[in-house]
Amino acid sequence: MAGLRERQKAKRNRSILTAASALFGQVGYEAARIDAIAEAAEVSVGTFYNYFENKADLLLAIVSMEVEEVLHQGESVVAAPPATAEAALFALISTYYDHSLVYLTKEMWRTAMALSIQHPETPFSRRYFELDAALAEQVTALLRGLQARGTIRRDADAAALGEVIFADLNAMFTGFTMDETMPLATLTGRMAAHVAALTGLLAPPLRTV
Amino acid sequence: MAGLRERQKAKRNRSILTAASALFGQVGYEAARIDAIAEAAEVSVGTFYNYFENKADLLLAIVSMEVEEVLHQGESVVAAPPATAEAALFALISTYYDHSLVYLTKEMWRTAMALSIQHPETPFSRRYFELDAALAEQVTALLRGLQARGTIRRDADAAALGEVIFADLNAMFTGFTMDETMPLATLTGRMAAHVAALTGLLAPPLRTV
DNA sequence: GAAAAAAATTGAACGCATTCATTTTTTCAG
DNA sequence: CTGAAAAAATGAATGCGTTCAATTTTTTTC
Question: For the residues of A38-88, what is the DSSP string, one character each?
Answer without folding.
Answer: HHHTTS-HHHHHHH-SSHHHHHHHHHHHHHHHHHHHHHHHHHS--SSHHHH
